[in-house]
Amino acid sequence: MLKQPATYAEQIAKLREHGCVVSDEAFCEEILSQVSYYRLSAYFLPFRMADGKYRSGTEFSRVYRFYELDRKLRSILFLTVEEIEVFLRAQFSYYHAHKYGSDGYTDAINFNSRHDHGNFMARVAETLKNNDKVTFVQHHMNKYNGDFPIWVLMELFTFGMLSYFYADLTICDQKQLAKDLFGTVPKNIKSWLHCCTVLRNICAHYGRLYYRVFTAIPAGLPEVDKTAERKLFAVIMALRQLYPNTGKWNNEILPSIAALIEQYTEVIDLRHIGFPENWEDIIQK
Predict the structure, then answer these.
(1) Based on the structure, what is the number of domains in the chain?
(2) Do 163 and 124 belong to one domain?
(3) Within this chain, do residues 158 and 256 fall inside the same structural domain, yes or no?
(4) What Rg do the C-alpha atoms of the chain give, in angstroms?
(5) What 3-state DSSP class applies to 169?
(6) Residues 88 and 153 in one domain
(7) Is the CB of residue 259 less than 8 Å from the CB of residue 206?
(8) 10 Å Cβ neighbour count for 102?
(9) Bridge partners of residue 48, in order along the sequence
(10) Domain that holds residue 55
(11) 3 state SS for 75-117
(12) Contacts of 119 (CB under 8 A, 6+ apart)
């Protein structure tokens, strides 16, 4: 049987019953009405004991600070992923078009043996259908009989589709792009792309980053130890590897993260996100 809905007063009572200190009921009710009890409950995880109660002294206002930290950090990282996504669209489409032609993606021979071309083209068709009101899509439908050059089509690719596209390139093409763009090997690129896809989806759906165990583990990052490989620090390291502008990373993104952590230094526990004490030195490109 499903749980029955609770009033804000009942939700506050439940928080107290679990050991949460609610000093300002009006503030607590306001936040519950804006964020929801269910969403905030995930931010109590660092304070939860084996019996489901919260550790002594767990204050609602402090837990809300974790939520605010998470929200602001998510914003910084989402914009960072966006820049990587745009960069990869430009680079992948340029490389593929100049090697195989503007419509080379329509020929299965230009991909590796594991590539399911029928599924790929079906996903392309679905992407076009879902964007059939977009001006440039209508333009190519009307003027070019629905034929799209790779550099136009790729503007509609999600990060997941970009990752899928790279993984299905020939081994030769994977190696060339990995070397030219990032000075590494395909295995690492696939891993980092997967990490970024997971991060992007979490951010796009306003998911929690703090105290999260990530499903993807980035490869080829000796700076990330075993204890941090499934935490936020590892994912940010993957972002660093894919980010195309070293100066902007060091002078804009890194300082933004550092300033945010400084702002919330009284509540944050770096271990919860896998950050070592010298994290700023390690993350710098």
Answers:
(1) 2
(2) yes
(3) yes
(4) 23
(5) strand
(6) yes
(7) no
(8) 17
(9) 54
(10) 8-59
(11) HHHHHHHHHHHHHHHHHHHHHHHHHHCCCHHHCHHHECCCCCH
(12) none
Is residue 150 located within the same domain as residue 98?
yes
**127 and 262 both lie in a single domain:** yes
Q: What is the pLDDT of residue 193?
A: 97
Report helix, strand and coil shares of the chain as percent, to nearest 5: 65, 0, 30
Give the chain's count of helices (H) and strands (E). 14, 0
- Under the phi-then-psi rule, with left for phi > 0, alpha for psi from -120 to 50, and beta for the rest, what region is 52? left
Give the pLDDT of residue 3.
Answer: 86
- Per-residue tens of pLDDT for the chain, all 285 residues: 888 999 999 999 999 999 999 999 999 999 999 999 999 999 999 999 999 999 999 999 999 999 999 999 999 999 999 999 999 999 999 999 999 999 999 999 999 999 999 999 999 999 999 999 999 999 998 998 888 999 999 999 999 999 999 999 999 999 999 999 999 999 999 999 999 999 999 999 999 999 999 999 999 999 999 999 999 999 999 999 999 999 999 999 999 999 999 999 999 999 999 999 999 999 999
Per-residue model confidence (pLDDT) at position 141: 87
Three-state SS at 48: strand
137 belongs to a structural domain: yes
* Cβ atoms 40, 63 nearer than 8 A: yes
Looking up tokens 């589709």 gives 161
* Phi, psi of 54, rounded to the nearest 5 degrees: -95, 150
**Which amino acid, residue 170?**
T
Consecutive H or E run containing 199: helix 186-204
Q: What local confidence, expressed as pLDDT, does residue 75 receive?
A: 97
Backbone φ and ψ for 206, nearest 5 degrees, come out as: 60, 35
Residue where the block lists tokens 């130890």 = 225
The token duo for 216 is 């993807």
Q: Are residues 197 and 132 in the same domain?
A: yes
Cβ atoms < 10 Å from Cβ of 238:
27
**pTM of the full structure:** 0.93
